[in-house]
Each structure stands twice: as structure tokens, then as C-alpha cells.
Specification:
The complex is a heterodimer of chains A (209) and B (376). Chain A is elongated and about 120 Å long. Chain A starts with a helix and ends with a helix. Chain A is of the alpha+beta class. Helices cover 31% and strands 10% of the residues of chain A. In chain A, the strands form three sheets. Chain A has a two-stranded antiparallel sheet. Chain A has a two-stranded antiparallel ribbon with strand order 3-4. In chain A, a hairpin with a 7-residue loop joins strand 5 and strand 6. Chain B is an alpha/beta fold. Chain B is 30% helix and 12% strand. Chain B contains eleven helices and eleven strands. A three-stranded mixed beta sheet of chain B has the order 10-2-11. In chain B, a hairpin with a 5-residue loop joins strand 5 and strand 6. Classes of the chains: A alpha+beta (209), B alpha/beta (376). Chains A and B meet through helix 2, helix 7 and helix 9 of A and strand 2, helix 6, strand 10 and helix 11 of B.
């Protein structure tokens, strides 16, 4: 009889233990946090069938590789109205500055750093006006003009490569296409203008009266 | 409906405006015979809604909340199921018997309305049922307005978990995102419903929502202020889903927290449960000018809602499941908004999470929002 009770006790204890053990295995508590979940579930990520390619649309792109990142940026040269520059800049810059020659670039007012730091030839190559020029005199193509910006804006460049700075073109899915610096910032006047908000909610005002 | 006032369930008087005692036939006309004019069996929308409400909740309309829950003679859902078939046949029978020239369209409309009235919860539907529902809604819209919409019932894709990051340093407070969201998601223009709020906060005061202004109208960015946006954060552990008494809101496999507008009873528990003010309620019938309606819709997203239901940001499910960015991300001129697949180690959103100093709002609540903030 005593044996039996002992046996019963053991069984009850064991089943309680089992119950407790399994009842803790709720699916939603599988991970401690969303970060753990992302890490665990992305381990065997095989890609998705969703593509954003169609949404890039008619924008011509070029593929660039910077560090660990390979992605598309819009092609630039075909978007510059007055490219190639040599169509007008047929003579050396010093001659074109003279008074008898037709004035040009009325619309460009430099508002980028100060005069001590930058002028036209900090970026433009006076000897070959169709190209850009780095601070140390290396030629930079207009299509990869971000290489000019990243000489000073190194932090922004790091963020841009990773995707924290700069807007995506198309959608979130691969292939990644990102705006390059000059697609959002006018290189001659790179800051964003202040303006009025796109809308004002008059109903909200009434509700809160 | 004079003869049916004491009945709990709607019976075969569809197509009749008001049954008069002298009615000589089942179509409710007192003279001129059946089928003489299509007007007689054409029901107005209001009349139909009224009839449908009577049919579905009947006397419970006058009961209070407690009685509604505890004083039901029969399980409502099973009653519905049993009734649907017979009602459908009945409705069909009446309209067929009554109409000679009233046309197939009104019959079809009636049929659609009945099927819609008694359809199940979207969450529990098979893919085929989802498709049928969506087709029905598209056809219904076509019959009512003569215009075409496309509505998707696309399910969550495997290996996708949507996440969002917001760069506080970049936001200038332009509210282009709010504009785009309203237009994309067919939000009610009368009540000026907006899913996104942009909070103008004073520098040096931290994230002080009490002192922030979410309805400013002056040139931005204002000096000495910064801007941060809030919307539905699509929590991985969403409290709004927990509290829904009818399971009309749930978390999809790709992390989107969605609402079945047709299953929602409008109790607004979810609105109360959300710690982020992410949910909106339709106090009136949402109205959007026909020319402004976005015709690219998803059942769980921007399709037209009705009065008395909850709605919220869905990360633009109609766009995101197709690979596009949500409308707010696309509209942002400063690139402050980043959206992507959290499970893709090469995605930009992952890079942000791993390389920037990110945080979320009210992290201590354990709601696990999938909406991160960061600064340059």
C-alpha cells in the first residue's frame, strides 16, 4: 500500500514536471526579443521571389561596388542638360572668363562651404572640363561624382553605402538602387530648403478645441 | 417589413421597399403586376443596410453589451451559417420571381451583398475563398460605380519580415509622407484621417510627446526643433491583437498587423490597447472623391472601409507585398524613411539596425515594435 502511494506520488510529480516543462514552450516566447528572432530566422535566408526591378522604371542605372556593397545608382551624364561641357568650353577657362565671351551659368550660385574652402575648380577640372577632379588631381567621372563628395563627407558616405543615408529607388526588394548624392543635393547648393508642410489638419484643430 | 417585425431573422422580402398590407404579390407592389417597373424591387443602399442589420442582429440592437454577449439563444455564427444558404436561395428566388426586366445586375448585387454579409473571417479563409471574396468586392464595386478596381489577396511571402527605420536627423517636417499616405490608402477626407503623425519637438527636451506639436503649420524646419514621425509600428507582440474580442485583427507572417474591416465590430479595444496611438476609427462613412480613389487595392489594405470599423497603417500592404516601398517611404524627400526585409542580411534596413545606434519607443513594454529610430 505504501509502495503504491509512493509510486502514485512519483507519477504525479513526474507528470507535473512534464506539464511545466511543455507549458513553457509557447511559440510566441520562442525568442527573447525581436533581434534574436531576426538573427535566428535570417540564418537560412534563401532570398525571396519578390523583386523591385520593375519599379526602377526608365531610370538608367550603373552598378557600383564600394567596400562590401554593390548596388545601382542612376546614370548621371545623360541627365545633365549641358553635358558635354566641351560643347561650350572649347577654349581654356582663363580665356572664357574674359568679358567678350557670352556669359553662362547664370543659374548657379555657389552656396557650398565657404570661399576659402571651395570654388568651381575644387571639383571641376579646368584642364578637362568634361570630367571632375579630386583634391589630389585625380580624374573623377561625372557618373561617379559621389567620389568627389566623399572626400569631405566621409560619414555620410559610410551611411550611404550601407543604406542609412539616401533614398532608395523603386522598392525595398533586391536589386538595390539608391539615389546618388547629386540626385537629392544640388552640388552647388546642397542644403534642403525650408518650406511649408504639405498639409494642415483642420479637423484635428476642431477636435482638440 | 411590417409583417416581419417580430422575427429575429430576415425573411424573403428582399427587393421590397415597404410591404403594404394590400400587396397583391410577393414583389410588394399593390398594383400593376410584377415586373412592370424595375424601381419597385430595387432597394436603396440604406434600405438594404437596414435590412441586413435587422437580419443579422435583429433584436440585439436594443440590448446592451452584457445582454448581447450572455443572452443569445443560439451561437450567432452557427446560426449565420445555417441561415446563409437558405437566405441566398430565398433572396435569389424572390428577385427572380419578381423581376422580369429588372436585370441580372441587381440580382447579382443582391447575391453579392448576401454573400458579403455572411462571409467568414479573412484570417481563416483558404486562398480560394480569399480570391472569391476579393473578386466579389471588385464586382460589387463595378456594379455600384461602373468603375474597375484591382484588389489583391496576396499572402505574406516566405522569408520576409518587414521592418522600418526612421532617421530623426533627416526628417524636416515637410509632411509629404502624410500626404502620400492619405492618397495611397483612401483615407476619409471629411474627418481628415491620417495614419502618420509628425511630432515637432523642442531641442533639448528629449522625446517629450506632451509638449510636442503634431499639427504645426509654419515654415519647416522650425529653428530649435526636430521632427519625428509615429504611425503603426507593427509590433511583433501586438497588444491590439491580444485584446480584439472577435479576432478581426492579427499579425501576418511577414509581420504586418492587419485588420479585416468586415469582421471588425468597432469596439475600439485595440485603439485603447495600442501604446502608440497607431489605430484610427471611422466615426462616419469614409468618403473619397471618385477621382482620387486609389484603384490598386488589397483586401487587408487600402480598400474602401465602412462606418464603425478600425483601420491603421499596413505598411501599404498593397505595395509592400509587391516589392514596392510604402507610400511614405517613397514620398519622403529627405530619405529619412527606410523600409525593408529584416530577414535579408544584405538589406539596407539590416545595415541600419546593425550599424546605427537605433532605439524604439516604449521598448520596455515588450511590444517589440518593428519600427526603429536612429540619428546620423
Amino acid at each position: 500500500m505504501k509502495n503504491n502511494i509512493n509510486m502514485m506520488n512519483k507519477i504525479v510529480c513526474f507528470s507535473v514536471f512534464l506539464l511545466a516543462f511543455f507549458s513553457c514552450k509557447h511559440h510566441e516566447n520562442e525568442y527573447h526579443s525581436i533581434t534574436d528572432k531576426i538573427e535566428a530566422e535570417s540564418k537560412d535566408y534563401h532570398g525571396t521571389s519578390i523583386s523591385s526591378e520593375a519599379y526602377i522604371g526608365e531610370i538608367q542605372t550603373i552598378e557600383i561596388t564600394e567596400g562590401d556593397h554593390t548596388f545601382l545608382i542612376p546614370e548621371r551624364k545623360s541627365q545633365i542638360k549641358s553635358y558635354a561641357c566641351t560643347e561650350c568650353h572649347s577654349k581654356p577657362l582663363s580665356q572664357m572668363k574674359s568679358k567678350d565671351i557670352q556669359k553662362a551659368h547664370w543659374d548657379i550660385k555657389m552656396d557650398h562651404a565657404n570661399e576659402n574652402t571651395m570654388n568651381c575648380v575644387t571639383c571641376h577640372n579646368p584642364d578637362n572640363i568634361d570630367d571632375l577632379r579630386s583634391l589630389t588631381g585625380h580624374t573623377i567621372d561625372f557618373n561617379t561624382s559621389y567620389n568627389l563628395c566623399n572626400q569631405c563627407h566621409t560619414k555620410q558616405f559610410e551611411d550611404w553605402k550601407g543604406g542609412a543615408h539616401g533614398k532608395r529607388i523603386g522598392g525595398w526588394a533586391p536589386p538595390r538602387a539608391s539615389m546618388t548624392c547629386v540626385n537629392c543635393h544640388d552640388p552647388h547648393k546642397p542644403h534642403f530648403e525650408s518650406r511649408w508642410p504639405a498639409r494642415f489638419n483642420t479637423q484635428k484643430v476642431k477636435e482638440r478645441e | 417589413m411590417s409583417s416581419n417585425n417580430n422575427k429575429k431573422w430576415f425573411s424573403l422580402n428582399i427587393g421590397r421597399k415597404e410591404k403594404t398590407s394590400s400587396g397583391s404579390c410577393s414583389c410588394g407592389k399593390s398594383s400593376g403586376g410584377c415586373g412592370g417597373s424595375s424601381n419597385a424591387h430595387h432597394m436603396t443602399n440604406e434600405a438594404f443596410t437596414e435590412a441586413a442589420i435587422n437580419a443579422s442582429i435583429g433584436e440585439e440592437r436594443t440590448k446592451d453589451g452584457f445582454e448581447q454577449v450572455f443572452d443569445v439563444k443560439m451561437d450567432r455564427r452557427s446560426a449565420f451559417k445555417k441561415l446563409t444558404a437558405s437566405l441566398l436561395i430565398g433572396a435569389g428566388a424572390v428577385s427572380t420571381s419578381c423581376s422580369v426586366i429588372s436585370g441580372d445586375e441587381s440580382k447579382e448585387k443582391a447575391q453579392i451583398d448576401w454573400e458579403e454579409q455572411f462571409k467568414g473571417n479573412y484570417k481563416l479563409m483558404t486562398d480560394k475563398e480569399k480570391e472569391a471574396t476579393v473578386d466579389r468586392l471588385v464586382r460589387s464595386y463595378q456594379l455600384r460605380t461602373g468603375k474597375n478596381i484591382s484588389m489583391s489577396s496576396k499572402n505574406a511571402e516566405e522569408d520576409v519580415l518587414f521592418g522600418y527605420a526612421f532617421n530623426i536627423s533627416k526628417c524636416q517636417g515637410y509632411m509629404d509622407c502624410v500626404n502620400a499616405c492619405v492618397e495611397e490608402n483612401n483615407q476619409d477626407r471629411n474627418s481628415q484621417m491620417q495614419y502618420i503623425r509628425i511630432h515637432e519637438m523642442k531641442d533639448g527636451k528629449g522625446f517629450n510627446f506632451n509638449e510636442a506639436d503634431d499639427n504645426y503649420y509654419h515654415e519647416v524646419p522650425a529653428q530649435g526643433h526636430f521632427y519625428m514621425g509615429t504611425q503603426c509600428f507593427h509590433c511583433d507582440n501586438p497588444p491590439c491583437v491580444e485584446v480584439c474580442p472577435v479576432q478581426a485583427t492579427w499579425r501576418e507572417d511577414d509581420g504586418l498587423v492587419v485588420v479585416d474591416y468586415d469582421w471588425c465590430v468597432g469596439c475600439r479595444y485595440c485603439m485603447a490597447a495600442c501604446p502608440y496611438d497607431g489605430r484610427r476609427f471611422n466615426w462616419s462613412k469614409p468618403e473619397v472623391p471618385e477621382s482620387e480613389i486609389n484603384h490598386n487595392q488589397h483586401y487587408l489594405g487600402n480598400r474602401m472601409r465602412k462606418k464603425g470599423v478600425m483601420e491603421k497603417c499596413t505598411f501599404c500592404v498593397q505595395r509592400s507585398r509587391a516589392g514596392k516601398n510604402p507610400a511614405c517611404v517613397e514620398a519622403c524627400p529627405t530619405g529619412a524613411r527606410i523600409f525593408g526585409n529584416l530577414l535579408d542580411p544584405d538589406s539596407t534596413i539590416r545595415w541600419v539596425l546593425e550599424n546605427k545606434k537605433v532605439f524604439r519607443l516604449k521598448e520596455d513594454l515588450g511590444t517589440e515594435p518593428k519600427f526603429w529610430y536612429f540619428m546620423d
